[in-house]
Automatic annotation (TrEMBL):
UniProt cross-references to InterPro entries, sorted A to Z: HATPase_C_sf, HATPase_dom, Put_sensor_dom, Sensor_HK_TwoCompSys, Sig_transdc_His_kin_sub3_dim/P
Family matches, as Pfam families: HATPase_c, HisKA_3, Sensor
Name of the protein in its database record: histidine kinase
Membrane-crossing segments per the record: 37-58, 132-158, 180-199, 460-486, 506-524
Organism whose genome encodes this protein: Streptomyces synnematoformans
Residues of the Histidine kinase/HSP90-like ATPase domain: 348-431
Length: 536
């Protein structure tokens, strides 16, 4: 049954696509109507509604295709325009016109952004074309399976009380007897198998078709990357400014005050060294103690900037050192087979340190489990405590600081902390280990762009045309024609072999079967390569 599951699942997905095609027709009417009414009759406020309907339908198609193929399709839309700012006179201006309220300038800017976004028109093109292309890819396997099941059921539908009458015309053959109905059962079974076999292939083709129109275009990718880099730069700048303020505050409140007191103590000892040497010695001992305390505070401050153990022994031993210094019962499991970049190590270390400190100060935990491991190019740190729970990354809290620290590295923070505990905080930072950094190649590089793109197009045409040619040669012109030759029917229909002279009929049938079988193996090899590439 597990082998049949992909084929049955493909038929179910085809039914979903048929239902989606009906929704696409409605969204298409709304989108085209908003274009006509908005720009033809001046009802411009309808245009954003039409775009919202188109984007909602396209988003559903992206979600389905991403879930079915295992490769999510990101949204390709340009970011929303910034809110308009008032001028010195408190009014808002757009295209030389002054407005008292920001509503109209914001609306016009939004319409302009929707019109200039290429993804809007790609969605519109997809809404027009997919009810035809997508519906054909979904319906053909369904109809083939249904037609095959009907052929297999012909003997059950035949009524002997109507001798000589024709029950139906099936696959170009008039079913006028029980024997003919029985002879067509293998044809129905073959068509049913063909429909099941073609189902996953048709769904793969539909996924490529959807991705070709609904995936982000190059301009949208660049705009989204610029917006994301802006956010990361802002987060990194804010975090650096906060770190500088923290260091300044620590220096002002700690070592600076102690150094001032140390200078005053040495000055007092200098005044007493001639008149009261014993008191001067006491003051000098106090100054020595103060200098030792200042040194300890400076070492702690340096450790807060970049711990020496992290630089000397790596992330795993640095986290173990944290566990030894903690008053809690901490268990550490480390599985890191390689060297991480220093910035990533630092971000992960301070994230774990902050989470561990929160477990002791706020959660009232007794035991903490820390797991560090690296898989599939992602560094993961999981901290679980048995505290009271209820943790959340609120503004100004330690967890929000952890988010800011890992955001420049595309890091993700996930918190699970029900009331009553336990609390689990997971940190994920994308980062290859060791030489994996050198193995990555830019997607737009010269070595990866052109040939791979051409190979994808050739594969798409081969995947689209070869199944049709091979299946026509193998089943109708080969097996079905051979079945009719065996039973000696007079109905030649559209089978090529039946129109040829008697000596050439069987060689033609065998040649058609051989042609169909010859195309199966290259197709399977091509699909396996495509599946392996998608898996990578």
């Amino acid at each position: 049954m597990s082998r049949l599951r992909p084929y049955v699942t493909a038929q179910g997905r085809a039914v979903v696509l048929v239902a989606l095609a009906a929704v696409e027709v409605v969204a298409q009417a709304v989108m085209l109507g908003s274009l006509v009414l908005g720009f033809g009759l001046g009802l411009l406020f309808l245009f954003p509604w039409g775009v919202a309907a188109a984007r909602g339908t396209a988003g559903a198609a992206r979600a389905l295709t991403g879930r079915w193929t295992g490769r999510p399709i990101p949204e390709p839309y340009l970011p929303a325009p910034p809110h308009p700012l008032p001028g010195p006179d408190g009014r808002y201006r757009h295209l030389g016109i002054s407005y008292r309220s920001p509503a109209l300038p914001e609306f016009f800017e939004r319409v302009h952004r929707l019109l200039s976004d290429r993804a809007t028109w790609r969605d519109t093109l997809w809404l027009i074309a997919d009810p035809v292309v997508g519906l054909a890819l979904a319906v053909l396997p369904l109809l083939t399976v249904g037609y095959g099941l009907f052929g297999m059921a012909l003997p059950l539908l035949w009524d002997p009380s109507y001798p000589g009458d024709t029950l139906v015309d099936y696959a170009g053959v008039e079913v006028a007897s029980q024997d003919t109905a029985l002879a067509l059962v293998p044809v129905g079974a073959a068509l049913c198998a063909l429909g099941l076999w073609a189902g996953p292939r048709a769904m793969a083709l539909h996924g490529r078709w959807t991705r070709s129109l609904l995936a982000p275009a190059r301009a949208s990718e660049l705009a989204l990357q610029v917006a994301e880099l802006d956010q990361k730069r802002t987060a990194a700048t804010d975090w650096q400014a906060a770190e500088v303020r923290r260091i300044e505050r620590d220096l002002h409140d700690g070592p600076q005050a102690r150094l001032v007191a140390l200078g005053m103590t040495v000055s007092a000892a200098e005044e007493l060294v001639d008149t009261d040497p014993a008191a001067a010695k006491v003051l000098l001992r106090q100054a020595q103690d103060s200098s030792s305390a200042v040194l300890r505070e400076l070492r702690g401050l340096v450790r807060g900037i970049h711990p020496p153990v992290l630089a000397e022994r790596g992330l795993g031993d640095a986290v173990r050192a944290l566990a030894l210094d903690s008053a809690l019962d901490v268990r550490v499991e480390v599985d890191l087979r390689g060297q991480l970049p220093d910035p990533v190590q630092s971000a992960a270390y301070f994230a774990v340190a902050e989470i561990l400190a929160n477990a002791g100060k706020h959660a009232g935990a007794d035991r903490v489990d820390i797991d560090l491991w690296h898989r599939d190019g992602v560094l993961r740190a999981t901290v679980t405590d048995d505290g009271r729970g209820g943790a959340a990354p609120t503004a100004g809290g330690g967890l929000r600081g952890v988010e800011r620290r890992i955001k420049p590295f595309d890091g993700v923070l996930a918190v699970s902390s029900p009331e009553g505990g336990p609390t689990t905080v997971a940190v994920e930072i994308p980062c290859p280990l060791g030489d994996e950094c050198c193995d990555t190649q830019p997607a737009g590089g010269a070595g990866a762009g052109g040939p791979r793109r051409l190979a994808g197009r050739g594969e798409l045409w081969l995947t689209a045309l070869a199944p049709v040619v091979c299946s026509v040669a193998l089943f109708p012109q080969g097996l079905v024609a051979g079945t009719l030759l065996v039973f000696g029917t007079d109905n030649r229909s559209w089978f090529l072999a039946l129109y040829l002279p008697e000596p050439l009929r069987w060689p033609t049938v065998l040649a058609m079967v051989a042609l169909g079988l010859a195309g199966v193996r290259p197709l399977l090899r091509r699909w396996r390569k495509g599946g392996a590439r998608q898996g990578c």
